[in-house]
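Hi C.,

You asked whether I'd gotten around to modeling the 389-residue construct. I have! Everything is below, sequence then structure, no commentary in between.
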Amino acid sequence: MTTTKNTKTEYSPGLEGVMAGYTAISEVDGNVDKLTYRGYDVEELVEACSFDEVAYLLLFGKLPNCIELTDFRRTVGENRHVPGVVYDLLDHFPPDTHPMDTLRAGVATLAAFDEDRDDNSREANLRKAVRLYAQMPTLVVNSHRILHNLPPIAPDPMLDHNTNFFHMLGSLALRPASLSDAHGLREDVFNVTQICYAEHGFNASTFAARVTVSTLSDLHSGIVSAIGTLKGPLHGGANEAAMAMLEEIGEASKASEWVKKALAEKKKIMGFGHREYKKGDVRAGIVKKRAVALGQKMADTHWHDISEIVEQEMLASKGLYPNVDFPVASAYALMGIPASLFTPMFVMARITGWCAHIIEQLDNNRLIRPANGYNGPHDLKVATLEDRC
């Protein structure tokens, strides 16, 4: 869509279908339900790569070789520490604070202590991006611990990204890995969810980050904007909302009637439908297959049994397929992870895509300032204060 100054263009609610820019980071092809990261099919990436490799791909534009991956993991391990002043701040938050609010505050505080805070160059932003990738699991786990009156726990610099997260999560998981013989499968499912969550084009939070830095604001400010946007239940918060729905349904025998009643009452069923995909979110199928296998391995198909009926009812009644948030909710529940951590864990993955987009935006920046139409009154006359009183 080409526009010139003083030219009015057709309005599209939610900017649906409006071309807002180009990116080399990912492609969402809804016509064939395909997602690629820098030219690689996500279905191949989840089979062949660790999340560390995909994070490197998104940030640096290529898959790492063995030496590059080793160096990257060492750098990430060395940068997992979060300054104590961040924890001091979070310790003053009310215990019912939403975890996404603690993350937002934590990232804003980290900005003040970043050694490159006054440098907005590409090289400095890549260093900041790697540090945030390293710090995010530490911030996610320890903000949760602080809100539950537990002391922060130190990350392990020698572990890879996913293993360190589970090391830190420890007893916070309602079902510790030590109690299950599905430990390896659990980490594989988690790796897959993190890859699937890592990047997804000009979604709401990514676009918010790009708008922020288009003003030449800093990378951390862009991430703060993105976190605030992701918090909403129509975006990243959908996985948490989907889990709340499954818990409310309670058992498979009640699922069909629950969905029918909710639809009759015009309630939104979270975790279904996606603006970009016509026949279903490709990521949902990737995660579901592995979540089902995990449930079978753990002899616990409770959430899958409910989910399957909800899916069938939504397809039959509304023609809607699940998006990635729906199977992720039951997968994380199987792992015993508290639902309040679901959206923060989304942040742990999407931090890579956000940072990649911020850097790309600044590489060829132009202030993002769309036009708007006016639909208010005209030609009103100002009455004196005396007349208005």
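If it helps when you're writing up: Strands lie at 26-29, 34-37, 40-41.

Thanks,
B.
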